[in-house]
Amino acid sequence: MEYFNDEIERLEDKLLENIESPVFARLAALYIEKGDYLHAVTLCDRGTEKYPEYATGFLLRALALQNLEKYKESIQNFRKVREILPRCQVVSDRINELEQKLKEMESKVRDTADEKTETDSIEELAERLKDYKPARSDSSQMRKEAPEENKIVDQVSGELLIVSETLATIFLKQKQFDRAIEAYRRLIELHPDKKDLYLAKIKEAEDAKKYEE
Prior knowledge:
Helix content is 74%, strand content 0%. It is mainly α. It folds into 2 domains: 2-108, Tetratricopeptide repeat domain (Serine Threonine Protein Phosphatase 5, Tetratricopeptide repeat); 134-212, no CATH class. Helix 2 runs antiparallel to helix 3, helix 3 runs antiparallel to helix 4 and helix 5 (71-84) packs antiparallel against helix 6.
C-alpha cells in the first residue's frame, strides 16, 4: 500500500511538471484501483481533451463512470474507444452488457412508477369512500340522477353495484367490515373458483369485527 501511495505521489508530481503529459492515464488507473473514481474521471476529462484519439484515456474514463453507476456516460465513452479500436471485441461486449443493464434499470423505474400510480388511485378511491353513507329513500328520481358509471352503492337499497377485490380490500382496511364481507360474498358469486380465498377473507373480516367490538 505504501508503494501504491508513493507511486500516485510520484505521478502527481510528474503531471504537475508537465500538465499535458500522457502520464494522466497511469495515474487515473491507480485512482480507479484505489476506488477514487471521481478523481480518475477528472484526470481523464483533462487528458482526453488533449489527446482525443488516445483510446486508453476514454477506456479508463468509461470504467470510472461505470463504477459511479453513470451507465449512459460510460457507454458513450466505450463507444468512443470502439471508434478508435473498432476490432476490440471486449469493448463491444462491455457496451452490450451495460446497455442491457440500463434497460433493466429503466424497466424497474417504469414498474415502480406504475405501482405508485396504482397505489395513488386506490388511496384516492379509499378517501372518497371513507365517509360515504348511502342515502336510503324510495325516490325513483334519486336513482335517475346518479350516473350509472359513478354508482358504487345503490342509493336505495344500499347494496353494492360494483364489486372488485380492490374495493373489498379498501373496505377491510377502513374497518368497514360489513361492507367487506358483503363484497367478498358477491365476489364468490362472480368467481366461484376463488371461493376458498374469499371465504378466508370473510373470516378475517368477521374476526376483526369481533375484536373491534
